[in-house]
Amino acid sequence: MAGQVLLAIFFSLCLSASGQAAVGTYVTADDIRMANDAALKAEAACVSGSSMTIDDYDTARAQLVDASANNILRTIMTEAATQEEMTTLVTERLPSAMIGAAAPLIMFFILLIFYTFCCCWTACPFCKCCRCCARLRQIPFLAKLLFLLMIGGFVLALVIVSSLSTRGYAKATEGFDVTNCAAAKMVNATFQGQADPYFLGLIPVLTIFDELQGSLAAGSTFITSLTGILDNTKEITDAVAVAKANVDLLANMLADSSNIEPTGTLHECIGCAALSTTLAQVGTALTTGTAQALSSARVEVNNQLSGSSLENLRSSMGIATAPLVELKTTVKNAFEPFVSDTIMEQISDQLAANGTVASVFMIGLALVLAACAMISIIMWMCQEKSSSDRGQPVYYKRVHRCACCTWCCGCYYTMLAFFLGGLLTILAVPLSSFCLILEDISSDLLHSIAAPMNLNLTGPEGDMMGSMIDQCIGNATGNPRLLDLISVPDANGNTVTMYDLLVGQTKDQIASQFDQIGTSMNTGGASIATSDDFVLLKNMLSTIALDTMMLPKSSYDWAGDANYQDMLANSDMAPYIASTAACADNVVPTGFGLTGEGTTQKGITSFLSTLSPTYAASTISRSNCASDFTCKTSAQLGATDYAACEAAKKFMDLKFAIRSQTIFKCRRFTVSSVPCTVQFMAQVGGTWTGDCKEADGTFTEVTYDCIRLSCRINDTAAMKSFSRGDLPTFVALVQAYSGLLDLVFARVDSSTSSALSQIQVNLKNLLDVNFLDKIATVGNGVTCGFMGTTYRDVVNGLCYGGVWGIKAVASSYTACAVLTLFLASGKW
Ligand SMILES: *[C@@H]1O[C@H](CO)[C@@H](O)[C@H](O)[C@H]1NC(C)=O
Ligand SMILES: *[C@@H]1O[C@H](CO)[C@@H](O)[C@H](O)[C@H]1NC(C)=O
Ligand SMILES: *[C@@H]1O[C@H](CO)[C@@H](O)[C@H](O)[C@H]1NC(C)=O
Ligand SMILES: *[C@@H]1O[C@H](CO)[C@@H](O)[C@H](O)[C@H]1NC(C)=O
Where is the signal peptide (predicted)? Predict the structure, then answer.
């Protein structure tokens, strides 16, 4: 019965894994009462034995198989495809299979009939006509002695065999005690947990689930506090987002091919790559920095514990709780009688008492019978004959009286023993069949017998049940986590284990985000605005004017271009083929990894002064420093220099073009299509304005021709002064980012310092206490190894104690009956 209950627990556990969420409080006062009762009961019940010692397992198992008519139940259930088929098979197979088991009972009926028709008038002690005694006999003394010895042997065997029933009773009693103890321990462990193998216990688990459900309910203190901290620290996420958007914007601008290789100018930006590299490092520092880690932590918490994720989490919690509540209810209903009543003790006590009486009775009867038999034999041998006057032997009436008495007693005894033994043998067939199934239970066995039990094991629930049986009961060494064995669909519709869902996808993800905060502080420190990478970037941006980095393409075949090749022939002009697009000369700044750092690079103005007045007759000013000029005549300069001057004029046109044409692409944010820079970002009453975020918190980055900047944006005077051309605007805008990035990074730092303790300490503690620790406790504490241990105790007690004992008693009685039959017929 306990085995059936265990199976029932597993079925309900598995089948309800997909089930409805239980609502309300999971643990009732009644549960706690039962848990306490179970603990007391376990203590009391296990005094008389807590585990079964099986002396010779293989033999005992073989005896069980024998008692079950060769595992008849399993054979039939395995073969039957439906319940109806099973009924058919039972009616077909059972009779022939039961012949052996039913033999003692059949013998009982044969004897009964035989006795009724024959003995009544031949063997009745009150009838005077004892046929056996009436016969005349001439049997030698030696034969009688042999006969005596044989009968003596039978009697001895009878006494031995009947005393074996005592052992059967003792074993059965022990088995019930062990089952009783195991059942009580199981209830105790199921409810209150146990240390080895570790199980948290359903009451603690359900209490935690209850608290978790309470914590996660809308408007709970936890959620309110959580929302409060998340709202208070929203600034860190905003600050990081603003900083990131600006870094990205600058990076995109520097990476724009229009700016790296300005169209139609044969120039390239040789400093852009160096700037981009440093900018990328800053970007990385930002994304791996403390601020980002803080922001990610709060974003992760927000993602997991708000909106639809929170709904999913609540429902996952419900799904995880349902089978546990089901388990609790099943265990409670099934074991209530064990714990609250003393049924098992009564059975065990009755068995012990009646068993003793029964064996004493059987042994006593056997002894009386033996005594009777011996007396009559001895009398037969010594005193049967007495001399008479007529020389005819006269038989003592006492001899056949006694023989008849033995015969009759034997006959009754045989019938009684056949009857009791037969009943118990038949009873042992279903009991041991069931025991063998219980002992051998595995997913394979379950699948093979599922059909006649109307169990549907095809779906995921069936798989779950199978793995639970294999892992929880079948694996004696493992202590698997129950949540690992329950599969549920996650938010994306994938099938994941409950453990992964609650612990892996929820708890571990949140925890790893918090771990990241510590890591980032250890590697980079909390401040981004003072980080080496950022300081370098700021210096680069403010020091390097990108027009000084715009040089004629080094890869271009100037000597092969008819327009410019003559310039290369003139030693004054040739060096300017590597002059910058800036007006003034400049020294390449050191410390930034630029090519040719520390060397002086010529600008447009120097180029012009090289040409004029030596080669140019006059200069014609244009909108930038790349003035036009007219070369002196060929006669004045000579053909070669004249050609060189004309080439220089075309080269100067390139310089003019790069400084004036609408070829550079600038980038900026717009808010509702209105241009915006973070230049005027300010904190007003705790709220930041002018950080160019759209209403939905995103950033809109637009590309525009650099020339138009001044018309559209609230520029500084400095920026306006550059707004005479494309390149200067681009240069000014990039340089302005030194200050803009400073603004946004300073904001990141200030929000980091105000959010650090709120997130790293307050938020973390709040989560740990109310959520993360509990999830971890439940996830790792809800194991099922304890079920296997108890299950094996129950099976051993029930099967190798109880059922084995019953079968032993049955065999002993049957053997007694057979011996007595020999004895009695021998007398005859
Ligand atoms: C019942 O469970 C409690 C809690 O795990 C444990 O301390 C106690 O020892 C158990 N009692 C018995 C008799 O096993
Ligand atoms: C068994 O259950 C699965 C899903 O769990 C279902 O698809 C299938 O139809 C069921 N089979 C029967 C015979 O009920
Ligand atoms: C039993 O459990 C242990 C530990 O969890 C595991 O290593 C082993 O593979 C399991 N055995 C079987 C047969 O599943
Ligand atoms: C331009 O910026 C100044 C602050 O420097 C501000 O007062 C003014 O309102 C801004 N104008 C526009 C059109 O945004």
Answer: 1-21
- Checking if the pLDDT of 584 tops 90, the result is yes
Residue 70, amino acid: N
Cβ(459) to ligand 2 under 6 A? yes
Instruction: Please give the backbone phi and psi of residue 14, each rounded to the nearest 5 degrees, phi first.
Output: -75, -45
pLDDT confidence tier of residue 709, bands split at 50, 70 and 90? very low
Tell the residue nearest (CA) to atom 7 of ligand 3: 478
pLDDT at residue number 730: 87
Q: Please say whether the beta carbons of 545 and 735 come within 8 A.
A: yes
pLDDT in the model for residue 340: 74
CA 456 to ligand 2: nearest atom: 1
Atom 1 of ligand 3 has which residue's CA nearest to it? 478
Quick one: pLDDT at residue 472?
A: 86
How far does the centroid of ligand 2 lie from the alpha carbon of residue 481, in Å?
A: 27
Q: Specify the residue for token string 């199980």.
A: 199
Question: What is d(CA 12, CA 151) in angstroms, rounded to the nearest whole number?
Answer: 60
The answer to whether 749 and 529 are in contact (CB under 8 A) is: yes
The span from the CA of 16 to the CA of 20, in Å, is 8
Strands 267-269 and 487-489: unpaired
- 153 within ligand 2 shell (Cβ under 6 A): no
Q: Whose atoms come closest to the Cα of 461: which ligand?
A: 2
Residue nearest to atom 5 of ligand 3 (CA): 478
User: Which ligand has the nearest atom to the CA of 463?
Assistant: 2
Longest dimension (CA), the chain: 192
CA 449 to chain centre: 29
Is the per-residue pLDDT at 564 higher than 50? Answer: yes
Residues 489-527 pLDDT 10s: 777 788 888 888 888 888 898 999 899 888 888 887 788
Asked whether the predicted pLDDT for residue 150 surpasses 90, the reply is: no
The answer to whether the CB of 17 falls within 8 A of the CB of 323 is yes
For 587-631, what is each residue's pLDDT tens digit?
A: 999 988 888 889 999 999 999 999 988 999 999 988 889 999 999
Question: Taking residues 54-63, what's their average pLDDT?
Answer: 89
Who lines ligand 4 at CB under 6 A? 680, 714
pLDDT at 653: 93
What sign does the CA torsion over 790, 791, 793, 794 have?
positive
Amino acid found at 311: E
Nearest ligand to the C-alpha atom of residue 37 = 1
Whole-number Å distance between alpha carbons of 276 and 446? 66
Ligand nearest to the CA of 720: 4
Which residue has a Cα nearest atom 9 of ligand 4?
Answer: 714
* Residue minimizing CA distance to atom 6 of ligand 3: 478
Supply the residue whose CA is at minimum distance from atom 2 of ligand 2: 459
494 pocket-lining for ligand 2 (C-beta < 6 Å): no
Q: Spell out the SS3 assignment of 191-260.
A: HHCECCCCECCHHHHHHHHHHHHHHHCCCCHHHHHHHHHHHHCHHHHHHHHHHHHHHHHHHHHHHCHHHH
Distance 475 CA to ligand 3 centre (A): 6
- H-helix or E-strand spanning residue 489: strand 487-489
Q: How many CA atoms lie within 13 A of 817 on its CB side?
A: 24
Instruction: Judge whether 173 and 351 are in contact, CB under 8 Å.
Output: yes
Alpha carbons within 13 angstroms on the beta-carbon side of residue 572 total 17
Strand-pair partners of 668: 702
Among 120-129, 172-181, 494-503, which stretch is predicted with the lowest mean pLDDT? 120-129
Q: Is the CB of 82 under 6 A from ligand 2?
A: no
What are the residue boundaries of the structural domains of the chain, listed by start? 2-211+321-469+783-827
Q: Whose CA is nearest to atom 10 of ligand 1?
A: 39
Q: Which residues pair with 619 in a beta bridge?
A: 629
Calculate how far, in angstroms, residue 680's C-alpha sits from the geometric centre of ligand 4: 8
Q: Which two tokens stand for residue 727?
A: 């390149």
For residue 680, the ligand closest to its alpha carbon is 4
If you measure from the C-alpha of residue 461 to the centroid of ligand 2, how many angstroms do you get, rounded to a whole number?
Answer: 10
